[in-house]
Amino acid sequence: MTGLPILIRTAREDDLTALVALFAADLVGGHGDTAAPDAFPDYLKAFRTIEASFDQILYVAECEGEVVGTFQTMITTSLTGRGSSSMIIEAVQTRSDMRGQGIGALMIEFCIAEAMRRGVRLVQLTSNAVRKDAHRFYERLGFKSSHLGFKMALK
Question: For the chain, how many structural domains are there in total?
């Protein structure tokens, strides 16, 4: 666990450069993220869409004024589970030089507490199949592997 104070807060537009750098540094994710200046308008548009949504929140973990991690939550409601709501945790990233210091656990614990506060019945996330360390991390935090996911890229 890091001895430095970590603040988890809602992301601001001025965090966007640091957030893009986090995603662009992820060589495993395969999302095609880049810090190239011509891509910035795409990230800004997405940020503003998330910011305008009641059911989506983008967060940052901040340490000494620097963004060291990020995650996004989404609340969905379905008829299954007697009309209950679920929280989806997405885009969990910790800056590579800050990994192994408990920041990821703080972010996930924040999500769980927020889900409980909002009265959702289930917290779920997906993780790239090759991220075995991440799978062990999520299992240590109490998550269970329960479903097989499928994706279809359209763009």
Answer: 1
Average confidence (pLDDT) over 36-44: 95
Structural contact between residues 130 and 28, judged by C-beta atoms closer than 8 angstroms: yes
Mean pLDDT for the chain?
Answer: 92
Residue 31's pLDDT band (cuts 50, 70, 90): confident
Query: Does residue 2 register a pLDDT over 80?
Result: no
**Distance of alpha carbon 24 from alpha carbon 31, whole angstroms:** 9
Residue 91 lies in a domain: yes
Residue 69 near residue 61 (C-beta atoms within 8 A): yes
**Cα separation, 111 vs 51, whole angstroms:** 17
Q: List the CATH number of the domain containing 121.
A: 3.40.630.30
Question: Shortest CA distance to 89 belongs to which of 142, 39, 42, 52?
Answer: 142
Where does the pLDDT of residue 47 fall: very low under 50, low under 70, confident under 90, or very high at 90 and above? very high
Among positive and negative, which fits the CA dihedral 76, 91, 140, 115? Answer: negative
